[in-house]
Amino acid sequence: MKKLLKTQRSDTSHWVGDGFPVRTIFGYNDLAKDISPFLMLDYGGPTIFTPSNKIRGVGEHPHRGFETVTIVYAGEVDHRDSSGGGGSISPGDVQWMTAASGLVHEEMHSKKFSQEGGAFEMIQLWVNLPSKYKTAPPKYQAIKNNEIPVVSLPDQGAIVRVIAGEYLGFKGPTQTFTPINLWDIRLSSNRKASFTVPTSQTAAVFVLSGSIILNDGEHISEAEIAILDTVGEEFTLQASADSKLLFLGGAPLNEPIVGYGPFVMNTLEEIQQAFMDYKNGKMGNI
Q1: How many CA atoms lie within 13 A of 102 on its CB side?
Q2: pTM of this prediction?
Q3: Contact at 8 Å (CB) between 220 and 239?
Q4: What's the distance, Cα to Cα, between the start and end of the chain in Å?
Q5: In the 8-state DSSP scheme, what is residue 147?
Q6: Closest C-alpha among 206, 229, 261, 173 to residue 42
Q7: 21 by DSSP, 3-state: which?
Q8: What residues contact 269, with CB distance under 8 A and at least 6 apart?
Q9: Where are the beta strands (DSSP E) in 50-165?
Q10: pLDDT in tens, 8-37
Q11: Please, which of 1, 39, 64, 244 could form a disulfide with 28 given CB 3.0 to 4.6 Å?
């Protein structure tokens, strides 16, 4: 049985641009080594936006050295980047953007959502890249809801959407540089489900809504993440209420993490070079 190492939560939010009220659950300066290859988790919402003719969001900004993963639960986001990637991300969709050698992008509420308003909820993850891929060409994967396998476990009251990796033989559509499991889990109240993941890989469970009991002992509540030990393969989740969860796991990179703002590299010199390259226009324009 995988043991609980620690939990972390955030009860305070901040704005990213004028379109994303987020709680940073963890970042590359705290839990990144415990949950490699994941660097950051921003939980946006849940909130309600009133109708507006103004398109809210966050304007052009650069990234280098990692990937951004945006999972939309409610609302709609439009994306554009300097590599030519882009599109609308609707509920159930996932955007997997590989910044790698560097790009510039923007994330805005869609025109339709801005004008109509409504519920908004999303997660953005930052996923680290091994040093040998940090200078790879940028890439964009638009993953639609109907492309994501859904595994139903009626006897356990659970549904698992396999965004990346594999669950019970169902493989997610995402191409990753290193082994990663990313599962969107729904667990019904008072139901208990068991999960098996590869030994020696990192594992964490984030609770978006509801609450769970981990391994018959530890209570994990809304907007809280549980980091599990890499030792062992199995863990159990029991829902105290209908719960919406995200499982994150993967092979740890075991490389230095040096981050500053929108760049995550292996050395300070590489960070300084990233700022210089961005200033000189080497990351392109939208």
Answers
A1: 19
A2: 0.96
A3: no
A4: 48
A5: G
A6: 206
A7: strand
A8: none
A9: 57-63, 66-74, 77-81, 86-89, 94-98, 103-109, 118-128, 139-143, 150-153, 158-164
A10: 999 899 999 999 999 999 999 998 989 999
A11: 39
Q: What pLDDT is attached to residue 98?
A: 98
Angle at 86 between CA 124 and CA 276, to 5 degrees: 75
Q: Which residue bears the tokens 């492309």? A: 147
Q: What angle do CA 70, 31, 130 make, to 5 degrees?
A: 65
Model confidence pLDDT, tens digit, residues 143-167: 999 999 999 988 889 999 999 999 9
* pLDDT > 70 in the chain, percent: 100
Q: Which of 221, 228, 217 is nearest to 244 (CA)?
A: 221
Q: Is 131 helix (H, G, I), strand (E, B) or coil?
A: helix
The residue length of the chain stands at 286
Q: Which residues, in sequence order, are CB contacts of 66 under 8 Å at separation 6+?
A: 39, 99, 126, 127, 128, 129, 134, 264
Q: For position 195, what pLDDT does the model report? A: 96
pLDDT of residue 216: 76
Measured CA to CA, the distance from residue 39 to residue 63 in angstroms comes to 13
pLDDT tens, 29-71? 998 989 999 999 999 989 999 999 999 999 999 999 999 999 9
Place of tokens 């049985």: 1
Please state, in angstroms and rounded to a whole number, the distance separating the CA atoms of residues 164 and 176: 8
Sorting pLDDT into bands at 50, 70 and 90, what band is 286? Answer: confident
Answer whether the bond into residue 91 is a cis peptide, omega within 30°: no
**Token output for 240:** 């105290």
Query: Of 214, 44, 98, nearest to 185 (Cα)?
Result: 214
The identity of residue 207, as a single letter, is V
- In our burial notation (b when 16+ CB lie closer than 10 A, e otherwise), range 28-58 reads beebbebbbbbbbbbbbbeeebeeeeeebbe
